[in-house]
């Protein structure tokens, strides 16, 4: 695991541990948290699509918190399952997609061709970042490499929503996601050569 991935894990643990300790004593399941995070993403997308960017920015941060907690709760309570992992990964992709579709709707209403293009590039590049990791795991290569993974994308997008600078935020996400695609491809290629 690289230094950046370790830093992400440490930050996640620091922010989620107090709440996880409480949730572990309840009947709340990790999959319940996963679904709550997805439903929050849908609500966030509606606010973004209707131009309520400040509310959308706050909601995306709140939803991101749920996204961090489901895996932590599963590990703490010994409820890690293969299906839970698949559900989490699937709903993460759908959450990101539905939010970007909300922004696409808003940009279309504004007649912003640049905004529409940035949403498209961001959607494709962010999905490919996750796809490379999934494919790498199939061939038994751990792939946590990358400067811009989901947490970084969520934070930058939230800031863009909060300060109403969406085109800049999407541009940053698009550029660094494309860079991360290159990083991950290089890493996987290098590791596969070592294995051979």
How would you summarize what this structure contains?
By secondary structure, this protein is mainly alpha-helical.
Description:
By secondary structure, the chain is mainly α. The protein has one domain (3-195): CDP-alcohol phosphotransferase transmembrane (TM) domain (Four Helix Bundle (Hemerythrin (Met), subunit A)), CATH 1.20.120. It has seven helices and no strands. The chain has helices at residues 3-23, 30-49, 53-77, 82-110, 113-138, 150-162, 166-195. 36% of the residues are buried.
Residue windows where pLDDT falls under 50 for at least 5 positions: none
CATH topology: Four Helix Bundle (Hemerythrin (Met), subunit A)
- The CATH architecture classification is Up-down Bundle
Number of strands: 0
Can you write the helix and strand succession as a string? HHHHHHH
Roughly how many Å is the radius of gyration?
17 Å
Give the terminus-to-terminus CA distance. Answer: 21 Å
Shape: globular
Structural class: mainly alpha
CATH superfamily, by name, is CDP-alcohol phosphotransferase transmembrane (TM) domain
């Amino acid at each position: 695991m690289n230094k950046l991935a370790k830093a992400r894990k440490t930050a996640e643990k620091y922010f989620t541990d107090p709440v996880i300790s409480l949730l572990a004593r309840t009947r709340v399941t990790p999959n319940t948290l996963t679904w709550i995070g997805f439903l929050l993403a849908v609500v966030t997308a509606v606010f973004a699509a209707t131009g309520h960017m400040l509310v959308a920015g706050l909601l995306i941060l709140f939803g991101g918190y749920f996204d961090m907690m489901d895996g932590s709760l599963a590990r703490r309570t010994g409820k890690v399952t293969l299906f839970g992992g698949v559900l989490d990964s699937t709903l993460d992709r759908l959450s990101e997609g539905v939010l970007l579709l909300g922004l696409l709707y808003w940009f279309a209403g504004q007649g912003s061709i640049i905004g529409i293009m940035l949403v498209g590039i961001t959607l494709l590049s962010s999905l490919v970042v996750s796809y490379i990791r999934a494919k790498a795991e199939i061939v038994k290569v751990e792939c946590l490499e990358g400067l811009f993974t989901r947490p970084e994308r969520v934070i930058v997008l939230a800031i863009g929503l909060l300060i109403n600078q969406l085109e800049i935020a999407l541009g940053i996400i698009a550029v660094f996601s494309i860079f991360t695609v290159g990083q991950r491809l290089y890493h996987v290629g290098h590791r596969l050569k070592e294995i051979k």
